[in-house]
Automatic annotation (TrEMBL):
Belongs to the avidin/streptavidin family. SUPFAM superfamilies: Avidin/streptavidin. This is Avidin. GO terms for molecular function: biotin binding. The lineage of its organism: Eukaryota, Metazoa, Chordata, Craniata, Vertebrata. The gene is Avd_0. PROSITE patterns: AVIDIN_2. The keyword Lipoprotein does not apply. It comes from the Eukaryota.
Length: 124
């Protein structure tokens, strides 16, 4: 089956859309994240992301990670995951994320980090 190319448009089960640009040779990821949901009461803005991917070489399920710098909130989210291609050529990104909120006091750090998983399917 074909190799997984991270470059393209992706959507997760929440309806968030991610546009990824993969700079090969340096294995850098750039893109934009349009989240469908927020933990804030702010208006959602499309936000930039940056990351890195492991050299795909012969591997079909290489690892990658990226961080989103939210433009409308003080939080940041780090995603790590792997790309999979099924035998019909359907690509998915299986990820785990950490959403780090900026809390005003050290005593509040216990509630500063959310964790979750997300599966992205390729929409373009
Ligand atoms: C914020 O609410 O402070 C910024 C937006 C966070 C959106 C989160 S990141 C993990 C989860 N997956 C998504 O697609 N959106 C939410």
């Amino acid at each position: 089956s074909p190799q997984c190319d991270l470059q393209g448009l992706w959507r997760n089960e929440l309806g968030s859309n991610v546009a990824l640009l993969a700079l090969n040779v340096v294995w850098t990821l750039l893109g934009f994240y349009h989240t469908a949901v927020t933990a804030t009461n702010k208006q959602i803005l499309v936000s930039p992301l940056q990351g890195a991917q492991q050299h795909p070489s012969a591997k079909r399920h290489f690892a990658f990670g990226f961080t989103v710098q939210w433009q409308f909130s003080d939080s940041t989210t780090a995603f790590v995951g792997q790309c999979f291609v099924d035998r019909h050529g359907k690509k998915t990104l299986e990820t785990t994320w950490l959403l780090q909120e900026e809390v005003p006091f050290h005593r509040d750090t216990w509630k500063a980090t959310r964790v979750g998983t997300a599966i992205f399917t390729c929409i373009k």
